[in-house]
Amino acid sequence: MLIQTLSATDPDAARLAFAQAHLGPVWSSCDVIGSMREMIGDGEGSGMQLRVSAVQMSMSDDRDQNLATAEHLVRSAAERGAQLVLLPELFEGPYFCKDQIASHLDRALPVEGHPTVESMRALAREVGVVLPISIYERANNALFNTVVMIDADGEILGKYRKSHLPDGPGYTEKYYFSPGDTGFRVWRTHHGVIGVGICWDQWFPEAARAMALMGAEVLCYPTAIGSEPPDPDWDSSAHWRRVMQGHAGANLIPVIAANRVGHEVGANHEITFYGTSFITDHTGAIISEADRTTTEALFATFDLESIRRQRIGWGLFRDRRPDLYGPLLSLDGEP
């Protein structure tokens, strides 16, 4: 049975009927049957309206099942008007970076002809949504943690390769990925200018500011984060959120973070992914959020022109002093 929670401000019971009719078979296969929640971003104006969705889900060892779940959630989000849908990092399967196992390197595939990318291109074209898709990319002898930006017409606008790679117990990404070489990227899509960082990138304000300077109107962070194997009781979720809330407030740009949920057991480490996916407004306030266990989709709608006027009027970009930021260009703060 599908359990659905509609927000108090959402009177449209047809959405519940749609979810029951179209998502029941997929959602019943998940460990936790989720809800959909909706909040509407504030701001007045008559500019371009962008409706976004963040998908939170668990992953199994069955790639085809994960892809089917993701596709159904994207379709449902599109039915509810979403124009940009963000899925979690590496959603094709379990977070394999828990352990250093050479066979996992075979998961990487080239972008060209990648089955998940091709499936999502067709889906984007069919339902008219922008899809930043997280994959494990093989480029000749190099392997990357990559997002492929798919526009609402199914065209690939480009790719971003993860710049910051963690390397600690349970999160040994430096074993699997080379550092990204694309630089930070933003794309002018059918539904707005979108910037994307990947998981560990979200802890670095420089990445968010760079994308803001390049014109991003929304920042997306597909994520896989949870407990720390050396100290399973250490909960970083509130810290994780506050950092990205700061990116939103400092740049006056909404932020979308989509995390996975579920308990995944590797050969040597296990992680409980804590979910708590969220969407902020352009001041950093969380306006839509998920819990720690549920497969669900979050929604928010933004008036991009209104936000643009507020961003310009606040003066943060007018009053920047790039001539004083030289210490940022070195590791030790020395010019």
In short:
With 335 residues, the chain is of the alpha/beta class. The chain contains eight helices and 17 strands.
Structural overview:
- This protein has 335 residues and is of the alpha/beta class.
- The protein has one domain (47-320): Nitrilase/N-carbamoyl-D-aminoacid amidohydrolase.
- 25% of the residues lie in helices and 25% in strands.
- It is built from 8 helices and 17 strands.
- It has helices at residues 13-22, 24-27, 63-79, 115-127, 173-176, 205-213, 237-251, 304-314, and strands at residues 36-38, 49-56, 84-86, 131-139, 142-150, 156-161, 167-168, 171-172, 186-189, 192-196, 218-222, 255-258, 261-265, 270-274, 278-280, 286-289, 296-303.
- The strands form 5 sheets. Strands 9-10-11-12-15-16 form a 6-stranded mixed β-sheet, with helices on one face. The protein has a 4-stranded mixed β-sheet with strand order 1-17-2-3.
- The radius of gyration is 19 Å and the shape is globular.
Largest sheet: 6 strands, mixed
Q: The CATH topology is what?
A: Nitrilase/N-carbamoyl-D-aminoacid amidohydrolase
What portion of residues is helical?
10-25%
What string, H for helix and E for strand, traces the elements in order? HHEEHEHEEEEEHEEHEHEEEEEEH
Would you count the extended β strands for me?
17
CATH 2nd-level architecture: 4-Layer Sandwich
β-strand percent reads: 25-35%
Number of helices, where a helix is a run of at least 4 consecutive DSSP H or I residues: 8
* Rounded mean pLDDT score: 89
